[in-house]
C-alpha cells in the first residue's frame, strides 16, 4: 500500500515534496473507491524476436523500426506482447466525479495510474516466473510512445493480442485506448539475466545501462 501511495503522489506532481495530510487522506479514499470499482484484466502472448542488420525488429508478423526499442531488446530471443486494463468502470467513476469535484477527480486519475502500474508489475512477475523455468529473463516493459517507438505500433500490438475480445480493450483512430486506464507493452526475454527491476528503468539507478528506455 505504501508504494502505491508514493506512486500516486509522484503522478500528482509533488516531486521530492511530501504531500500534506489532507491529500494523503484523499489518496487513501481514492484507492478504496478504485478497489470497489476496478476490474483488472490482462493478456499476454509470446513470440520469437529477432533484429536484422538494417535495424528492423521482427516480432511475429510485426516489423518495427525503433532504435530505443532495439536497445531494450538487445540479446532477446523472445518478446512478450502484453496488454492490461482496469476496466470501463474506472473511466465512468472518474467522469462522474469530475462533474462535481475536479480536485477529487485529479486524485482518482493519479491513483488509477498507480494502481494500473502495480497490477502490471504483479502480472509481469508471474510471466517472468514462468519464463525463468525455460531459462529466459524479462527486461522492463516498453510501450508504444516511449523513445522513438511510435505510438502507431499500438494497433498491430493490440491486434496480435486480440485485446477487444480478450480484455475488452479497443483503440480510437488517434491511438487512444478505451478504457483509458489501460496499457500495452513489449517485454523482451533474454537468456542472460540482467537484474532489471520489474518496476522498470525509473526504479533503477544505473543511468548508463544500454537497455534503458
From TrEMBL:
InterPro entries: S-AdoMet-dep_Met_synth_prd, VitB12-dep_Met_synth_activ_dom, VitB12-dep_Met_synth_activ_sf. Residues 118-192 form the AdoMet activation domain. It holds the Pfam family Met_synt_B12. GO terms for molecular function: methionine synthase activity. This is Vitamin B12 dependent methionine synthase activation subunit. It comes from Candidatus Mediterraneibacter tabaqchaliae.
Amino acid at each position: 500500500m505504501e508504494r502505491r501511495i508514493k506512486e500516486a503522489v509522484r503522478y500528482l506532481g509533488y516531486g521530492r515534496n511530501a504531500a500534506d495530510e489532507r491529500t494523503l487522506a484523499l489518496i487513501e479514499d481514492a484507492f478504496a473507491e478504485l478497489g470497489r470499482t476496478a476490474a483488472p484484466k490482462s493478456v499476454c502472448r509470446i513470440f520469437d524476436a529477432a533484429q536484422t542488420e538494417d535495424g528492423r525488429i521482427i516480432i511475429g508478423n510485426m516489423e518495427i523500426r525503433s532504435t530505443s526499442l532495439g536497445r531494450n531488446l538487445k540479446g532477446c530471443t523472445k518478446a512478450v506482447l502484453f496488454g492490461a486494463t482496469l476496466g470501463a468502470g474506472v473511466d465512468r467513476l472518474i467522469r462522474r466525479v469530475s462533474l462535481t469535484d475536479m480536485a477529487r477527480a485529479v486524485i482518482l486519475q493519479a491513483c488509477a495510474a498507480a494502481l494500473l502500474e502495480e497490477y502490471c508489475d504483479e502480472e509481469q512477475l508471474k510471466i517472468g516466473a514462468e519464463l525463468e523455468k525455460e531459462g529466459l529473463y524479462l527486461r522492463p516493459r516498453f510501450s508504444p510512445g516511449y523513445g522513438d517507438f511510435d505510438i502507431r505500433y499500438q494497433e498491430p500490438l493490440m491486434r496480435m493480442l486480440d485485446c477487444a475480445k480478450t480484455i475488452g480493450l479497443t483503440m480510437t483512430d488517434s491511438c487512444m485506448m478505451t478504457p483509458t486506464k489501460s496499457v500495452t507493452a513489449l517485454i523482451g526475454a533474454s537468456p542472460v539475466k540482467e537484474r532489471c527491476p520489474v518496476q522498470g528503468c525509473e526504479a533503477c539507478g544505473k543511468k548508463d545501462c544500454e537497455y534503458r528506455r
